């Protein structure tokens, strides 16, 4: 059980919630969150926006019943927080692009921080794509060397994969697929963070299965991060 | 406080369960994942992820959808196949002392029979036969819908199965009472019910069903009252033990199923609310027995 320290609205439907929770979570991991008893039945997988040893901050979009309940939580309210679960983004170095679409920008904030901490020489460009309103761009400026945003268009139009050694992305599947198609023949290593619907969060129920070049993978346990070429493989080959 | 004279232990078709609470097939994998999160040794048993003779990749598209008080799933029996399970997953459970229930589905009578022949050589407590699979050679209707079609698979498996045999009934059966009586007549040792209810959801923006297969299985608290009624009907109709399931979420739910006649219960969807919810159910049942000075669940089983 965690305690809500802060839960603030940062746009029309995006919220940042800071929860008191001792943790050693890694960039790209997620927690299963729940602020109700039986209904909705399922807990909500939410990735880590930021963390320190005693707190975890989540960026979420109020889109359904569960996240709507989260949006009404107040300071000192209790929230069930199970995790951290899943694997991490790889510790890449050099010229790095982090590409997020919509609420998929969430895991990129702490990832940028960590990658910079690991190698201050790395140069990190963060691409943030939104459908109608840019969110948290000032905050992202504090963790990236360069921030590029796109509202209402395609963030993938803004990036030239040739410029990077590594590209880490999280967002809608079509966005990530376009990015992979653009970058697959360059030297950039591309990794995607998947957002499949989940139930158990720990690899027991197989509802979040992702078909990959090396067989079925559990997004919650084997992922959420996969090499893009594993996810967007050509089934005909 | 633990009452020394009171026990949750049950004899289920000759298999002693330390308590009557078992995790339902498909919700607990092969035990390893939850084993890292809570003490699964405290459970009465585990019904393992449903197997088929051969590896299955499972269904494409969305596999889970939330409904009011329930979930729909369309996993499509993704599993490593019986030979892989027998050599790799089953041995990982050897040091646990709960009842190990192996759940088996199939898409032809021949597949069921071949799979059982392999499983006969391995050590576990109960074979739970999932007859809610489409009979590919028989036009695609589920084996478990018509009693006479189910009879063929139950009868053939019974002839060769060396384990205790429990048939898992589908609530989509035309006549669940006659189905249960057939299972008893064919020599099954026990029955479990109910599997998920065939259900549907529509994505009104895409103007398509949510699930690639069109229909999916509904589980969770939404189905509990119907499952309870079916368990009651079946318990009245057969003398072999019944493992009741369908939306059990609280210890009160579990006691209801026992009063309806179930010898044991399975907990499925509720584990997604809280991974160790089955332990809460076990504790709640024990406290209920203590408060009511019950020494054995026999005293309340089938009293309705």
Task: Walk me through this protein's architecture.
The complex is a heterodimer of chains A (237) and B (304). Chain A has 237 residues and is of the alpha/beta class. Chain A has a 6-stranded antiparallel barrel with strand order 1-2-5-4-3-6. In chain A, strands 9-8-7-10-11-14 form a 6-stranded mixed β-sheet, with helices on both faces. Helices cover 17% and strands 36% of the residues of chain A. In chain A, a hairpin with a 4-residue loop joins β1 (2-9) and β2. Chain A has helices at residues 65-71, 106-118, 137-141, 173-183, 228-231, and strands at 2-9, 14-20, 30-34, 44-52, 55-61, 78-85, 95-101, 123-130, 146-151, 166-170, 189-193, 209-212, 215-218, 225-227. Chain B has a single domain (10-59, 75-196, 219-299), classed as TIM Barrel. Chain B is 28% helix and 20% strand. Chain B has helices at 32-35, 82-89, 109-119, 147-160, 176-185, 224-237, 251-259, 277-291, and strands at residues 10-12, 15-17, 21-23, 45-47, 64-67, 70-73, 99-104, 126-130, 164-168, 190-193, 197-200, 202-203, 208-209, 215-219, 242-244, 264-267. In chain B, α4 links the parallel β8 (126-130) and β9. The two termini of chain B are 28 Å apart. The mean pLDDT of chain B is 95. The A-B interface holds A 34, 37-43, 65, 80, 82, 197-200, 202-209, 211, 215-216, 221 and B 26-29, 33-34, 36-37, 49, 57-58, 60, 62-66, 68-71, 73, 75, 78, 220-221, 249, 269, 271-275.
């Amino acid at each position: 059980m965690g305690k809500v320290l802060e839960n603030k609205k940062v746009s029309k439907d995006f919220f940042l919630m800071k929860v008191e929770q001792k943790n050693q979570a890694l960039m790209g991991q997620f927690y299963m969150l729940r602020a109700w008893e039986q209904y909705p039945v399922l807990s909500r997988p939410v990735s880590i926006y930021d963390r320190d040893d005693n707190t975890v901050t989540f960026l979420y979009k109020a889109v359904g019943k569960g996240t709507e309940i989260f949006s009404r939580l107040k300071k000192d309210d209790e929230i069930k927080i199970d995790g951290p679960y899943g694997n991490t983004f790889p510790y890449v170095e050099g010229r790095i692009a982090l590409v997020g679409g919509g609420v998929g920008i969430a895991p990129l904030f702490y990832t940028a921080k960590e990658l910079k901490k690991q190698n201050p020489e790395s140069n990190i460009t963060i691409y943030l794509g939104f459908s109608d309103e840019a969110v948290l761009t000032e905050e992202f400026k504090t963790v990236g060397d360069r921030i590029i945003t796109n509202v209402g268009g395609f963030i993938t139009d803004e990036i030239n994969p040739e410029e990077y050694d590594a590209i880490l992305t999280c967002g809608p599947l079509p966005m990530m697929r376009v990015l992979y198609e653009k970058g697959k023949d360059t030297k950039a290593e591309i990794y995607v963070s998947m957002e499949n619907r989940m139930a158990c969060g720990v690899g027991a129920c197989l509802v979040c299965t992702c078909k990959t070049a090396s067989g079925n993978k559990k997004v919650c346990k084997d992922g959420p991060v996969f090499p893009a070429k594993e996810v967007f493989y050509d089934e005909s080959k | 406080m633990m009452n020394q004279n009171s026990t949750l232990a049950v004899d289920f078709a000759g298999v002693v369960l330390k308590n009557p609470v078992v995790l339902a097939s498909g919700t607990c994998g092969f035990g390893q994942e939850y084993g890292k999160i809570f003490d699964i040794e405290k459970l009465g048993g585990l019904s393992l992820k449903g197997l088929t003779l051969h590896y299955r990749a499972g269904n494409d598209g969305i596999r889970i959808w939330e409904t009011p008080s329930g979930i729909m799933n369309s996993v499509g029996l993704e599993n490593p196949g019986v030979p892989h399970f027998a050599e790799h997953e089953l041995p990982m459970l050897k040091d646990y002392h709960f009842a190990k229930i192996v759940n088996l589905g199939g898409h032809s009578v021949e597949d069921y029979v071949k799979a059982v022949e392999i499983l006969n050589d391995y050590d576990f407590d109960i074979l739970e036969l999932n007859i809610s699979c489409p009979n590919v050679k028989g036009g695609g209707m589920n084996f478990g819908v018509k009693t006479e079609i189910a009879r063929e698979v139950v009868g053939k498996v019974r002839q060769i199965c060396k384990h205790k045999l429990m048939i898992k009934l589908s609530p989509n059966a035309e006549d669940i009472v006659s189905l249960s009586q057939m299972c008893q007549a064919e020599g099954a040792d026990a029955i479990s019910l109910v599997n998920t209810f065939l259900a549907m959801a529509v994505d009104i923006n895409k103007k398509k069903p949510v699930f690639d297969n069109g229909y999916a299985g509904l589980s969770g608290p939404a189905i509990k009252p119907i499952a309870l009624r079916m368990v009651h009907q079946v318990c009245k109709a057969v003398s072999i033990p019944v493992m009741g399931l369908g939306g059990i979420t609280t210890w009160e739910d579990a006691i209801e199923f026992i009063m309806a006649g179930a010898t044991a219960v399975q907990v499925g969807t509720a584990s997604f609310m809280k991974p160790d919810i089955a332990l809460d159910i076990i504790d709640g049942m024990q406290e209920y027995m203590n408060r009511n000075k019950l020494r054995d669940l026999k005293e309340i089983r089938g009293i309705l």
